[in-house]
Amino acid sequence: MRQLSTAAEAAILMAICVKRKEAEAGKELSRLRLSEKTLKLLTGRRRVDWRFVADLNEALLDHNLILLLTGDAIGLLKASAIKGFPRMNSDRVSEELKLARRGKLDYDDLANELEDETSEFDEEIDD
């Protein structure tokens, strides 16, 4: 019977992989992509559930890393890289937040706004 890695143990293995990949590349890498198979190998699991991912992310923070599961891709980010991201706040939706607190926000309108934006972006890609 195989022994499952703890989140802390898996985080160490992942951090070592990043360190060695950086040495190979000869530069620091702020983001990496990994396969589901690699994630399972590094964690010693056949199935990686959300509870383990939460524990793993907590352990990865000790190594300046964050794991992202997007559904069709798995990413590993340097936590320090996030400091350089553009900042976002809730000012852009302050009116919507007021409506939501009163139970009067029409989320369908917002969803339509998102779809319109996505359609425009898709058209730009096709050009």
In words, what does this structure look like?
The protein has two domains: 7-84; 90-126, no CATH class. The chain has 127 residues and is mostly helical. It is built from five helices and three strands. It has helices at 7-25, 36-43, 50-61, 94-101, 107-126; strands at 31-34, 65-69, 74-78. Helices cover 53% and strands 11% of the residues.
**Rg measurement, Å:** 20 Å
Mean pLDDT: 89
Contiguous uncertain segments of 5+ residues: none
- Look at the helices and sheets and give the structural class: mainly alpha
Query: Number of helical segments?
Result: 5
Portion of residues within helices: 40-55%
Give the domain tally: 2
Label the overall shape.
elongated
For the secondary structure, the number of strands is 3
Sheet with the most strands, sense and barrel status:
3 strands, antiparallel
Strand order in the sheet with the most strands: 1-3-2
Strand content: 5-15%
H and E string = HEHHEEHH
Distance, first to last CA:
55 Å
What distinguishing features does this structure have?
single chain, 127 residues, mainly alpha, 3-stranded antiparallel sheet
Outline of this structure?
By secondary structure, this protein is mostly helical.
